[in-house]
Amino acid sequence: MKRIALTLVIAATAVFDGCCGNARFVNMFMGTSGDHGQVTPAASVPFGYVSVCPDSSPWQHAGYDYAVPHTTGVSVTRISGTGCSGVGGDLRIKPCAASDSLFIVKGTEKAVPGYYETMFSNGVKGRFTATRDMAVEEYRFAGDALLYIDFMSSIDPTGKECAYEIMDSNRIVGFVKSPTVCARGRYKLYFNLTTSEPFAVAAKDSTSAVLNFNASKVEVRISLSAIDQANAEKITEKYSGKSFATLRKEASGLWAEKLDRISVKGSTKEQKILFYTSLMRIYHSPMNVTSDEGFYFGTDGKVHKAEGFTYYSSWSLWDTFRAKIPMLTVLEPEAMGDMCESLVHLYHNGKRNWATPYEACPTVRTEHANVLLLDAYRKGIKGFDMSYGYEGMKLEEERDYPMSKPDQKLESCYDMWALGEIAAILGNEDDAAYYTEKADTLFESVWKKEFMEITPSFTVMRRNGLYQGSRYQYRWMCPQYYDRLVEWVGKEQLVSELNDFFDKKQFNQGNEPDIQTPFIFNRLGAYDRTSEIVRSYLTDDNMVHVYGGNAEYPEPYVGRAFRNELEGYAPEMDEDVGTMSAWYMFAQMGFYPLTVGRDEYELFSPIFDRIVIKPAGIQKKVVIRTEGRRSYEDRISSIELDGEPLGDCQISNKLFLEGGTLVFKY
Q1: Which terminus of the chain has fewer Cβ atoms in its 10 Å neighbourhood, N or C?
Q2: How far apart (Å, rounded) are the C-alpha atoms in residues 279 and 159?
Q3: Cis peptide preceding 179, ω within 30 of 0
Q4: Rounded CA separation 422/341 (Å)
Q5: Residues 72, 89, 65, 574: what is their CA dihedral angle, to the nearest 10 degrees?
Q6: d(CA 589, CA 575)
Q7: C-beta separation of 394 from 419 below 8 A
Q8: What's the confidence (pLDDT) of residue 2?
Q9: pLDDT over 90 at 20, yes or no
Q10: C-alpha distances out from residue 650 to 521, 522, 591, 622, Å
Q11: Whether the bond into 286 is cis, omega within 30 of 0
Q12: Is this model's pTM higher than 0.85 or not?
């Protein structure tokens, strides 16, 4: 009954106020309840670093939890779908006294991309929208107009700082310094807070203030900048002539431009909702932190000029390199060039596997950045110079590749292989030979010793000495070496072992180390098996899941891992900053980047009957359609690209750069 009630509530909140285009299929509340995705319904814009919504008490990782109506107020930063104890929660405003308990009135919440509203238990109505760099908060009061502002409200209490100064009765300035995810680094944001009505200071201390207003409606604007205080003030001035309604409309338009980039037909309404909700979530990061004047705050603690490109920050590459960033390569080839140039500058300015003490916004970690650079280069992405960051890549290999455990060796092996490939591209033949041989030798030694012979211990996830995966799951970690696995094990035996992997429910859809495994069958020539497995994980309501995000479930979870519900993801499953959303989209559309770092996608039966993709800046569209299919169980008989039969079940990124028609025939 609880699940039914939650479903009814979420159905009522999925769409409202004349939402049109593909935005009408976005369910902002999917996965926002409990430990089922760690996502939020916050108001934001694509690639923006402002994200506005209430924080729950107790909170989930991104601050908000639908299942917890008790709120500490509305904050302006967060990363959706990440782990540890979360990140963000800065500059929190509570529309009541600090000591008062405040609750979200469930049933009054409404959200669409770029906008969130709710009624609070004290009768205050809140409406929120955002720009890339400014939060816009409107409060309508039923009684006393009171705002409690916590200037040091970061979710993670480790080492946070703040300072503020009340400039006049409408403006407060200052900065916040907060820990990044897992407190591995820090970000500092200058802020300029203005109010539409004058306030009187009822109380204040070094970290908070209580403001009184003689008004029934107050709009608060909070501009953020990693550059300096003057830049935060410029941001406020930039939007000064625009009303709340105008800014909300602009946010909606930015989302419509992204969401209408893909159109789909066929399948169920729920599949469309899951698809467009996933599409929305891949645009939450990386974050565009470049000022309008073209400056950005670097990881060396200095302000730099971004010459000819836009600088992005907020990375979670251990997760997102596997699916989310490759999806942006498909949809955003121009922006991807800027993202790659940002990673190149990250290597040049000072990169660590996790965050540095000098971040421009909330962020997570940056392993596998060179794999993404290699992937983008080979897929024809322009606008970045790998040579500028090459010495930083070499330094990372010498200093930061973890090698103490078998899983770490495989993860590092992927980066080392990519470094060898990049060295060859740059013409550094000696380096190419050195890193390639080192990667090859490492992979062979660790795989044959630790992963070749399957034992009962392979099914253990918790306390097995590995990070977020079992040995069975990590066994398939490096797809660039699958030809060697065939050589060492034999193709038929490898197919048999992969079948056992799925038949025994060893696949973990709740975490990233093995999310590529359904598509390995294609590489081994068992094409129908890829389609069968992907279809089952997308559609089978009785699918058995043995593993959660970090351990075995006490009892297996039965059901789909993605559902249009408040508890929209499998238990303990982090959405991981768009990674799982991108995986789901690839799975629905019938192509997947099995080997990130190579220009190839594995093809399998799509969920939709017709898909039209219009990548940004590309003149011609991509059409993917089925022909002659009567049910999902039908087998593919052939695949044609622009009327010509494909020799195998692979395509290159050329299709998405030049346009074309891909037809699955049954």
Answers
A1: N
A2: 35
A3: no
A4: 15
A5: -160
A6: 19
A7: yes
A8: 45
A9: no
A10: 12, 9, 8, 16
A11: yes
A12: yes
